Amino acid sequence: MIYTVTLNPALDHFLDVEELRVDDANRVKREALYAGGKGIDVSRAIRHLGGDSMALGFIGGHTGQAMIELLKAEGVTCYFTPIAQETRRNIIVTTQRARTQTMLNSRGPVVSKDEWAAFLTHLKLLDLRDAYVVVSGSLPVGLPGDAYRQIIDVVQSRGARAVLDADGPCFKSGLRAKPFAIKPNVNELRRLTGQPLRSESAILRAAERVQRGGVEVVLVSRGAKGVVLVGRQECFRAIPPGVTVRSTVGAGDSTVAGFVIAHAEGKGLETCVRMATAAGTAATLAPGNQLCRAADVRRLVPKIKVVSC
Ligand SMILES: Nc1ncnc2c1ncn2[C@@H]1O[C@H](COP(=O)(O)OP(=O)(O)OP(=O)(O)O)[C@@H](O)[C@H]1O
Ligand SMILES: [Mg+2]
What is the model's pTM? Predict the structure, then answer.
């Protein structure tokens, strides 16, 4: 089983207007609601690729219920821990004429100590043997700074492989639990190592150091330059073909989904990095906040150049 953890999910409310007039009424031409948050995006991308996962995390209030309904409609199984406060909601206003995008992000709920304890209890009830647990995104207010380390310790001591995609202090802290895999982009790797990482060889050396520190698979995503994967004995560079990018939103989450699906199917690391890169690049072909589409991934897989490094 693949589980994804989104501790700070959000309901994204997209509104399209011709132009945004402040201090005036604006007529909305089109609107859509999406369940958002990085772990949830990984679950949705896995669904697009024909796989199954279970989305975990915190959910509260009417906004939380709306999110669960949206996920159910997409075929994503949920097992969220309820919280007293309302799940956050982001409003994204796109103007069609000037092509601007204005985001209004709410602060989000405060999660109490008891709710955090309940989440860890829920985690321990799952069948974690040979499972994958994707831990991704930011932490809500109220959680301990080492929340990711605690989650990874719980799931890996019960036989699961944790895949961590985070940034800043919570990424650093999560690494102490030695997750099975991580997927930083180059900026996140820079912040982690404190190095400028100006060349490909510098990126590679940094990834190798992190790998030797106890992470079995380090995937570094590099936007249009693809993905570098460093394993215990193997190391690959995967380069996507040139594509016409429509939106890079969700590319990193699709990369994680592609990797986890392939690894869970028992594929070798060369195939895993190919799938990860194809899924990430496929996400850039889809407009707006859409994730990778299966047909694009299938078409891209043979076009990804994978070389040993
Ligand atoms: N311009 C591009 N052309 C082709 N592929 C791309 C491009 N940008 C991103 N990708 C694909 O998406 C993957 C992930 O992109 P990126 O490294 O930007 O991740 P990220 O910064 O973690 O993204 P996110 O903002 O979703 O977290 C890349 O490894 C690549 O496969
Ligand atoms: Mg990312």
Answer: 0.96
